Structure to design on (1214 residues):
């Protein structure tokens, strides 16, 4: 089992990397069709990445080693965090590593280096992006961890595989705490991945950027790695929402039939989530930065209510 | 190899510290003595303390001895058990690094007008005081050593006494140290009166009712909390720590605050010995408030050392959150989780000593090279001081609690302890504990934001002033001192199971049980409760990160493939200058705006006569207006009433003496 | 009885009770009056749904009628009347943001925890499930009262009062399976009459002092009356 298990774990990690641009392309396609356009093909992000890898990478005169190393650190930390989340099956040897707090910590490490890279060149835009990113994430982190705690207090574990198994075991249970945690986590995911209404990933106006401002100076393969990392982060949150709150369909063993079904189900769930994100991005407008605290306070309120409903309504005595 | 018993090693550490103090008396005549003899002796004392601590932890027993000093009926007793051993390690490792670092650092004082004997002498006495506090086995020696520690650090804080602000800071520090010491003494008094004696053994056997135990607890909490820097008794910390010489600031923030934590653990967990949930709620509340307020104040600072001092307030808050959780779970009958919380607090203690020491040594290196403490003048230092920059980055990542360094491990353990709140019976506590954990998460995120600001503004980007643009490299010994601490930060982050096993004697001795299941699944997995509940494979994460990083750099970087340099993006206008960069105040502005209610912010823009605009920003601590000024006014008013006693007439003074004598004779009859 | 052992309908009741709590938070925080009225309407819908579920699971036919009454009154009629009133008083664009939103929300959360602590002594096994919903209802009542304290706009105070009534109704329905029909009809009629009176009075007050700010109606005090 161990050989096949580790092989599957590596395959799952590679699958994450391979699927990430597809999700981004799908969201763009749905948005385009909502705006009555044909839009670029779903495989366009792969072509963009290939083009960027072929181009020359340049650095500003004032950039240092941190600027050069940051894309690799960001990508690898995000990838390591993503690779631990059960995608197709819950019975992998990497499941022991899938501790939610470790995943949040790895994402924080990626964000730390991303912000440092923004400040490294010594321009106003990088500093602005770094300042805004740390501000938004500081407000989003308590909401995210409250949602995680609600899950952990219910399943008595912070290990994601255990949480998914717990959810699969009990049948037909409506939990108000999970509902609130899901709502809060959706808002946090939108803020952390830099989508509308918190940040516009397609903007060209520097003063409206948060994530784009930090990677403004990157080019060539560095930019490709940074973009891929951002897509990977979006996929990570999508899989987290899909497989933790609606885990039905995920494989619980390693036989090929279950794996195939698990893959098909998760691709379907991600397609639905991506379409929902595209719809919300089309309907909502980007908020100004100082309305972001209201947005994140709503997320925090929802997750707090989730915790309180767990304590008050769900636990017996 | 000479294998001395840990107690002998500890004694030799104290002796070495005192010798280094003595030797520095000659440095008035021979300035190089400080650098060549005193600091190495100091480092050696630290090493001896570290060896003694490790020996005590590994052997696990209790070693006692009696010194021929002290009062005739109360000789000074020394005790080296696992708890003392742990804190000896903490003191020893940071003192060793500070001693090595100090060799290069004190060179800057040799030609100035400052008194070198004072610097060396009081540093040695400071270390000796701290070591004796940790080794003390009775209240008398404890208080004497505590006073020695406070007084010698007062003289060190007042080292640059030519500035009035430094004198004020030193006075505030002395005042609050003594108020805290008084509270501790009263606490010992309560314990001693029930235990019939000042020796710790007698106090341990004392039978205290809940009321009296709470009185002793409150006195100990106030006294040790004041010394550790808990809100609202923290006001001396950001004043005193920045003005001391940098290796002393490292010792004060990294070690002295931990000695206060040692005192709290010794009195509450060991001597009083009872656990009540009401105490834990108080400790948790004050710990959370300290953590949050500390980090928020730190975000508003742009003086590098003051910022680091406020972060010490935050981390002490986190340690007390861990201790509060331990008290809570131990008092409600969950010893396993209580032990976990206790171990988490201990781990964070040593982590904070390491990374705060590292950060202060780095700040001292920056000060040494650029003579600048203000973040708004720095920039681009990574290119001028590469080693200091790398070590400081390690410190920043560690204090932001990011994997794979040590800060993450202690924060993970604290979260795991808090998440076991579902075992509690009380529903109210079951909902309040996760809220505390969310506050902890908020402080972690804000700390990361603060250190992105510090590192980005100070070390990255372009230099904002001329003298920073010309910063020199620091001497070799200063880099070695920082390197030792940075390496330890990495080791404690990557091999947590090994270190928890090493420290296991402490909970076994204090609480009666160890945390053996933490490393029960091999050195690879840290499983504090059970593997299904939570597991952290620290070496796995670290190795994967390192291997993948190197693989990526090799595959894509192809060795040293040169990257072409060009100008930064400037929107087509004039090229960006150093003044167009984000300043530290600008970086923190969104957070300042959202949390502004908690501070007293005085920000303004005034037009000057030459047509230019001037922006000023002062952020002050609300605790001054709410607590300190009213208390000071009350004391002054009371003093004005009492001063009427001083009538000047000698017969009235004699009358008071007679009256007091009569009352005392009557009471003791 | 843990969550897994409860039948599906009762789990649905828990979910709806939790969402009712969320709507009372939404009512507390809303700056715009029209949005607050909509939140109140949704609260009425949810309370009606809870009543219907209690009726379905207990087989109490008269509760269906009272569910329909609640829906008609609390979700349709009263919001419509308030909406009309707001439009007549030209307050529909009026925004009144909270001055210290963080403190208010923290206070509301503390009230939730406090009401949970209050009902903890009711530990009889059969009442466990309903005890938790009673805790939520008590929290809704207290938050409604908090809203009346915090808000200065008179229409917002009416909403707070009405949401208190919603909370009491929810407690009655879940704990005791509803009140006798006569009592319910009486209460509903009282609420309706109160609404009509509010409408008339607000119009008069607005005409005479040209504002509905409650802080301006402080003439009835012992201090010297020297204000203009």
């Amino acid at each position: 089992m161990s050989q096949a298990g580790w092989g599957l774990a590596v395959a799952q990690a590679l699958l994450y990397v391979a699927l990430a641009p597809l999700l981004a392309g799908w969201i763009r396609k749905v948005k385009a069709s909502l705006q009555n356009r044909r839009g670029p093909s779903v495989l366009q992000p792969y072509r963009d990445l290939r083009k960027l890898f072929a181009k020359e990478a340049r650095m500003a005169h004032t950039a240092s080693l941190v600027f050069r190393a940051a894309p690799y650190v960001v990508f690898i930390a995000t990838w390591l965090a993503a690779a631990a989340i059960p995608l197709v099956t819950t019975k992998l040897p990497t499941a022991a590593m899938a501790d939610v707090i470790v995943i949040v910590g790895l994402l924080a490490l990626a964000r730390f280096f991303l912000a440092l890279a923004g400040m490294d060149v010594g321009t106003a835009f990088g500093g602005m992006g770094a300042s805004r990113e740390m501000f938004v994430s500081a407000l989003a982190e308590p909401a995210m961890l409250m949602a995680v705690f609600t899950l952990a207090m219910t399943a008595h574990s912070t290990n994601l595989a255990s949480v998914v198994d717990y959810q699969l075991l009990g049948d037909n249970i409506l939990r108000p705490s999970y509902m609130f945690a899901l709502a809060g986590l959706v808002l946090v995911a939108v803020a952390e991945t830099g989508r509308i209404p918190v940040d516009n990933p397609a903007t060209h106006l520097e003063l409206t950027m948060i994530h784009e401002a930090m990677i403004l100076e990157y080019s060539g393969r560095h930019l490709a790695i940074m973009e891929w990392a951002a897509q990977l982060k979006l996929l990570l949150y999508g899989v987290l929402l899909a497989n933790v709150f609606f885990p039905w369909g995920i494989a619980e063993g390693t036989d090929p039939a279950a794996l195939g079904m698990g893959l098909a189900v998760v691709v379907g769930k991600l397609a639905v989530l991506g379409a929902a994100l595209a719809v919300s991005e089309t309907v909502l407008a980007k908020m100004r930065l100082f309305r972001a605290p209201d947005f994140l306070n709503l997320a925090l309120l929802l997750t707090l209510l989730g915790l309180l409903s767990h304590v008050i309504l769900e636990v017996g005595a | 190899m000479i294998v001395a018993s840990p107690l002998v090693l500890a004694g030799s550490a104290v002796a070495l510290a005192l010798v280094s103090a003595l030797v520095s008396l000659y440095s008035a005549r021979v300035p190089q003595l400080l650098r060549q003899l005193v600091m190495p002796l100091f480092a050696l004392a630290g090493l001896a303390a570290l060896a003694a601590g490790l020996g005590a932890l590994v052997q696990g027993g209790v070693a006692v001895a009696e010194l021929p000093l002290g009062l005739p009926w109360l000789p000074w007793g020394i005790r080296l058990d696992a708890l003392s051993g742990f804190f000896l390690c903490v003191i020893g490792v940071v003192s060793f690094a500070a001693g090595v670092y100090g060799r290069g650092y004190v060179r800057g004082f040799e030609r100035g007008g400052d008194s070198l004997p004072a610097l060396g002498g009081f540093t040695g006495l400071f270390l000796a005081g701290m070591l004796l506090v940790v080794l003390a086995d009775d209240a008398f020696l404890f208080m004497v050593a505590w006073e020695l520690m406070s007084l010698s650090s007062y003289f060190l804080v007042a080292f640059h006494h030519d500035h009035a602000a430094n004198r004020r800071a030193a006075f505030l520090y002395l005042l609050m140290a003594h108020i805290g010491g008084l509270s501790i003494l009263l606490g010992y008094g309560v314990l001693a009166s029930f235990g019939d004696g000042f020796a710790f053994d007698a106090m341990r056997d004392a039978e205290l009712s809940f009321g009296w135990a709470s009185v002793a607890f409150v006195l100990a909490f106030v006294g040790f909390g004041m010394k550790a820097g808990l809100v609202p008794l923290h006001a001396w910390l950001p004043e005193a720590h920045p003005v001391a010489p940098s290796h002393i600031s490292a010792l004060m923030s990294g070690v002295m605050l931990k000695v206060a934590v040692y005192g709290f653990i010794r009195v509450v967990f060991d001597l009083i010995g009872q656990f009540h949930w009401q105490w834990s709620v108080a400790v948790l509340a004050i710990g959370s408030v300290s953590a949050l307020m500390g980090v928020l104040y730190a975000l508003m600072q742009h003086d590098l050392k003051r910022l680091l001092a406020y972060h010490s307030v935050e981390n002490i808050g986190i340690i007390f959150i861990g201790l509060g959780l331990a008290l809570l779970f131990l008092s409600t009958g969950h010893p396993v989780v209580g032990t976990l919380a206790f171990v988490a607090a201990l781990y964070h203690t040593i982590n904070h000593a390491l990374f705060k020491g590292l950060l202060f040594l780095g700040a001292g290196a920056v000060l040494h090279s650029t003579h600048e403490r203000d973040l708004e003048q720095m920039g681009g230092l990574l290119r001028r001081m590469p080693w200091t920059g790398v070590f400081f980055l390690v410190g920043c990542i560690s204090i932001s609690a990011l994997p794979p360094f040590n800060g993450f491990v202690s924060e993970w353990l604290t979260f795991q302890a808090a998440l076991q709140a579902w075992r509690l019976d009380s529903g109210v506590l079951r909902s309040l504990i996760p809220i505390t954990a969310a506050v902890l998460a908020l402080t972690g995120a804000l700390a990361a934001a603060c250190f992105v600001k510090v590192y980005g503004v100070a070390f990255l980007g372009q230099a904002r002033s001329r003298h920073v643009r010309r910063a020199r490299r620091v001497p070799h010994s200063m880099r070695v001192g920082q390197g030792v601490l940075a390496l330890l930060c990495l080791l404690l982050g990557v091999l947590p199971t090994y270190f928890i096993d090493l420290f296991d004697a402490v909970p076994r001795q204090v609480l009666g049980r160890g945390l053996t299941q933490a490393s029960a699944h091999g050195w690879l997995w840290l499983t504090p409760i059970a593997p299904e509940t939570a597991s952290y494979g620290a070496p796995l994460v670290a190795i994967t990160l390192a291997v993948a990083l190197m693989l990526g750099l090799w595959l894509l970087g192809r060795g040293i493939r040169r990257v072409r340099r060009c100008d930064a993006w400037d929107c087509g206008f004039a090229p960006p200058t150093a003044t167009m960069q984000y300043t530290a105040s600008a970086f923190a502005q969104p957070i300042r705006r959202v949390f502004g209610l908690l501070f007293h912010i005085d920000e303004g823009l005034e037009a000057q006569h030459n047509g230019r605009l001037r922006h000023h920003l002062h952020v002050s601590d609300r605790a001054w207006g709410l607590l300190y000024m009213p208390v000071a006014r009350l004391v002054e008013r009371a003093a004005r009433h009492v001063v009427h006693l001083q009538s000047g007439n000698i017969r009235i003074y004699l009358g008071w003496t007679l009256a007091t004598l009569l009352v005392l004779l009557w009471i003791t009859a | 009885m843990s969550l897994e052992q409860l039948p599906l309908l009762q789990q649905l009741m828990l979910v709806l009770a939790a969402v009712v709590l969320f709507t009372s938070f939404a009512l507390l925080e809303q700056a715009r009056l029209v949005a607050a009225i909509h939140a109140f309407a949704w609260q009425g819908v949810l309370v009606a749904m809870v009543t219907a579920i209690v009726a379905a699971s207990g087989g109490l036919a008269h509760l269906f009628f009272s569910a329909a009454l609640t829906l008609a009154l609390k979700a349709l009629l009263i919001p419509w009347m308030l909406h009309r009133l707001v439009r007549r008083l030209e307050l529909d664009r009026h925004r009144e943001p909270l001055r210290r939103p963080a403190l208010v929300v923290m206070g509301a959360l503390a009230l939730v925890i406090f009401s949970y602590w209050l009902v903890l002594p009711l530990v009889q096994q059969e009442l466990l499930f309903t005890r938790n919903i009673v805790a939520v209802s008590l929290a809704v009542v207290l938050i409604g009262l908090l809203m009346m304290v915090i808000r200065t706009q008179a229409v917002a105070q009416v909403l707070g009062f009405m949401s208190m009534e919603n909370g009491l109704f929810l407690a009655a329905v879940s704990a005791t399976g509803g009140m006798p029909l006569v009592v319910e009809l009486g209460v509903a009629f009282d609420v309706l009459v109160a609404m009509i009176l509010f409408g008339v009075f607000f119009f008069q007050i607005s005409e005479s002092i040209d504002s509905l700010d409650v802080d301006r109606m402080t003439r009835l005090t012992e201090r010297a009356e020297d204000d203009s």
Notes: The mean pLDDT of chain B is 88. Chain B touches chain C through five residues (CB under 8 Å). Chain B has 26 helices and five strands. The radius of gyration of chain B is 26 Å.
